[in-house]
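Follow-up to my post from last week.
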Amino acid sequence: MNLFHCLRRGSAPIARERLQILFAHERSARSQPDLLAVLREEILAVIGRHVSFEPDKVQIKVSRDKSISTLAVDIEIPNGGRALDVLSPQSRPRFSPRLDYNVSRTDQWVI
Amino acid sequence: MGKVLVVTSGKGGVGKTTSTAALGAALAHDGQKVVVIDFDIGLRNLDLVMGAERRVVFDLINVINGVAKLSQALLRDIRLETLYLLPASQTRDKDALTEEGVANVIEELRTKFDWVICDSPAGIERGATLAMRHADLAIIVTNPEVSSVRDSDRIIGLLDSKTAKAERGECVEKQLLITRYHLSRAGRGEMLPIDDVLEILSCPLLGIIPESQEVMRASNVGSPVTLNDALSAPARAYFDAARRLNGEYIPMRVHSESRGFLNTLFGRKAA
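User reply:
Got it. Predicted complex:
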């Protein structure tokens, strides 16, 4: 919602929408408390088996919307890394396995 | 056997203690035997809100430790003879609150009173979970504001999983008490309307307490809102809620401060 909307209708509808989106996730997460932490660990373990990367150079973003959620993992891999042994010469310059580019929403947290 | 009621919220400062005192006094005002218990170990305040702070000798922890008998720790209200208070301890040792001790105290009170009202501390720690542990009915105090609504949802989750009833496969009845409500601000779309809060939390409504200066005025003088000025808007709202607890059908309404012409002429005090 934009500012115009906000001034005209008040901020309460925004509060309602934010809470509904939040609860859709928090309530389903009750049975599996830390899904995101598990995903992060396992994804990084799999990638770490094949290429070496700096843990600091990993960005994980989640975006939660009413109907869909997206998870974006962005790993920066140095050119001199072990990835060179695995990958073909053509892709040597830079390898950045992006699981999802489609992250442009407002409710984003970097983990 | 009396009913055990927990007044809870998750978030602090939403009006749990005010509501406990006001509802307890309203129920006792109708002649029922009521005990209110402060579970906020180390940060007791129910005694202060009820104006009994200078009479506290023994407390809940003393009873649990066997230092005092329950009858010695219970304070009778100076205004209503069927209203009693069991104060919390001011010591910092929260572990003194044992599950078995709390169970024994609640069971004994249940046989002697019509209503046992547990004033939960904020948060989701031991004090809060023990306050709700033996409840038949939970009153979830919520402000129409995002952080309070979120915390209420967390508390509802705990009520459905961590209470004695939930563990027996039964369900703790839950009702929302919306406090600090501004009718005009909700009308202008500046505050979450009641219907939205109810829909988001999917929980029935016990009452709507309007924002009012009377709440602080009553706590300043150490009197439950419902006894300090029974005609004030929040007092009337609490009386409605108390009657709903008794199973009466009272139409839901938002009380306003406006009074009749005679009330305005002859001053504010009614109780």
